[in-house]
Amino acid sequence: MGKIRIGIFGFGKTGKVVANEFLNDSLFTLAWVVRKGQNDHHKYASRLLGYEFDAGEIFSIEDIDDNFFIERPVDALVDFSDSTGIYLYKKAAEAGIPIISAISKYEQEEMNLIKSYAKLTSVLYSPNITLGINVLMVAAQILQKIAPHADIEIVEEHFKGKKEVSGTAKRIANVLSLNEEEHLNSIRVGGIVGRHEIIFGMPNQTIRLYHESISRAAFGQGAIFAVKYLIGQPPGMYTMETIIAEMFRQNIPVY
Residues in domain Dihydrodipicolinate reductase N-terminal (predicted)? Predict the structure, then answer.
């Protein structure tokens, strides 16, 4: 079996780290990268990231035409650009190329579009694609069902410059059916990349579940996990949460 060919949309801070993770994994070959503007046009992502071989030729969004995905075939497309990127790869969906999107937020029109792609190919959409945070959310939902009367608080900690409330924390509150204003607590201090904690308070005991981001490389590892799962799956919408939940179900210890 040959290497899995990957195309990436987005080459900002996170996109570069994600590209680097694919370049470091022997199962994959980075075919190309699409970014806004003409910066580093037709250079290679591998060279820009310090490697001494050519991989991941850089294209501009202006290069995307009806033949782009035919002339430069890939086995999966990974999107770390922004919400507008979704308008550029309709032809990829029509060609049956699996799509992994880690965009933080889509408007309803964009969600409708990605759902239409899911009728043509397998599409995995997870705003936070890290493996750990999705394990955290699934585990929290299980614990909430086991102890439905527990008090629950969410604490999200991020670097000092992050002004908005964590979208991941909002997602956790949503899946646990908690009011954000009442149960979501934010901390901003230097030295923290990102940390989410869910505290379950019960008589005479507490249970704390937490996930801490050490590096953006976690997004790349999540994307690699998603690609491995998605290739060969039938058309449809997938999420990291549903995949992890199914793995929980399959791996429950039997006593």
Answer: 4-128
Tokens of 45: 């992502």
176 and 119, same structural domain?
no
Shared domain check, 90 and 58: yes
- Specify whether 107 is located in the same domain as 18: yes
Q: Which residues are catalytic?
A: 158, 162
| 203-240 tens-digit pLDDT | 999 999 999 988 889 999 999 999 999 999 999 999 99
Tokens for 61, please give them.
């969004």
Same domain, 207 and 115: no
According to DSSP H, which parts of the chain are helical? 13-24, 45-48, 68-71, 90-94, 108-117, 131-146, 167-175, 180-183, 217-230, 240-250
Q: Are 171 and 141 in contact (CB under 8 A)?
A: no
Q: Are residues 50 and 150 in the same domain?
A: no
Q: Do 76 and 186 belong together in one domain?
A: no
Place of tokens 């590892």: 221
Write out the residue range of the structural domain in which residue 167 sits: 131-213
pLDDT tens, 164-202?
A: 898 899 999 999 999 999 999 999 998 888 899 999 999
Q: Are 57 and 86 in contact (CB under 8 A)?
A: no
